[in-house]
Amino acid sequence: MPVPWEALIPFGLLVGLFGVAGTGLNIVKRSQNDWKPPRYSLDRWEEMMMERDRRLTGTLRGQRTDPIAPKEFATNSVWDSTRLNA
């Protein structure tokens, strides 16, 4: 049975474009996540720690080695104070 060589061109195009799309999606997800792999199945504790890291460093994945928090950490609360006076 002969091989339909004409079918390999569209097959190659499909495989190539799916590969480009998947690689592009991976690059975009990692660039938004400080070039680290995405986290899955986060529980409440991990979300709180990510919020604390965001308040300390400005990014969800950033961490500090300083034992003392900066002065700004005392005033940048997670509570939205703009809705309290409404």
Automatic annotation (TrEMBL):
Record's bilayer topology term: Single-pass membrane protein
Pfam families hit by this protein: MWFE (PF15879)
Locations listed in the record: Mitochondrion inner membrane
Gene Ontology CC: mitochondrial inner membrane
UniProt keyword terms in alphabetical order: Electron transport, Membrane, Mitochondrion, Mitochondrion inner membrane, Respiratory chain, Transmembrane, Transmembrane helix, Transport
Signal peptide feature range: none
Ranges that cross the membrane: 7-28
Function summary: Accessory subunit of the mitochondrial membrane respiratory chain NADH dehydrogenase (Complex I), that is believed not to be involved in catalysis. Complex I functions in the transfer of electrons from NADH to the respiratory chain. The immediate electron acceptor for the enzyme is believed to be ubiquinone.
Family: Belongs to the complex I NDUFA1 subunit family.
PANTHER family named among the record's database cross-references: NADH DEHYDROGENASE [UBIQUINONE] 1 ALPHA SUBCOMPLEX SUBUNIT 1 (PTHR17098:SF2), NADH-UBIQUINONE OXIDOREDUCTASE MWFE SUBUNIT (PTHR17098)
Name the UniProt record assigns to this protein: NADH dehydrogenase [ubiquinone] 1 alpha subcomplex subunit 1
Organism annotation: Kockovaella imperatae
Upper lineage: Eukaryota, Fungi, Dikarya, Basidiomycota, Agaricomycotina
